[in-house]
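Re: the 258-residue chain
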Amino acid sequence: MKKITFLIFIVIGTICYSKYKIELNINPNDSLKIIKKVIKNYENGVLQNEEVVKYTYENDLVSKIVTTTDNNIITNETTIKYENGKLKEMYNIFPFAKIKKGNKIMTQMESIINVVYNYENDLIKNAIGYQNDKITHVDNFIYNADKQLVKKQTKTEGISNRETKYTYNKEGNLLKEKESESNEYYKYDDKRNPFDLVFPQAYLKIYQISKNNIKSCNWNSNSYTYEYEYNSDNYPIKIIKKNGRKIENETIIEYSKV
């Protein structure tokens, strides 16, 4: 996707998701956590590579996310820091790595990308992104009376400022995302989004992680659909993402009580 936060989306595996503040029917099954995802990536119907994402928790909070290739090469290690119980920083290390993509070997150069979050009461008011200790962008967040994110203002080094606006459906899921001439539209299922089990509410809001799972997403001329298999708790255990009729990736999610 087009967002500056794309690398963070890679970490959590969430393209085209939204979130707003709702009252969920919390039950003992909410002690479940995502512990592992296996992602198979395709191009023109051909398997290119496989990623394994593992989640570690401390005191019921996600503390580390490690992404490896199918032959156990680390491609990303994210350490998550908290301050007064609030998610304060995502510190991402992308080590030098040789990564298989189909019949090719891609080189990933070493870099460090981190994002620091600043709060006003319980909402994140801005996020400052760094790459190798240099500020790359600043996102400022504006909310409505229902504490839904309605506007994001982005200042990026060397690029003109951008503004993204968000509107929601009656269920509170993101309906439309508009940035200049670009538009995204979303439709959802009625099952539970698994990232509610991983990240705090304030973080979910700014990255538009929904209470439900996206069934379709239209971004300009691109049309994405998602097919799901669910467990008995109505969380996805398998997701197939398609661009038109072509499979882009297939994700298997494992849960456990932590």
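Helices lie at 6-12, 201-206.
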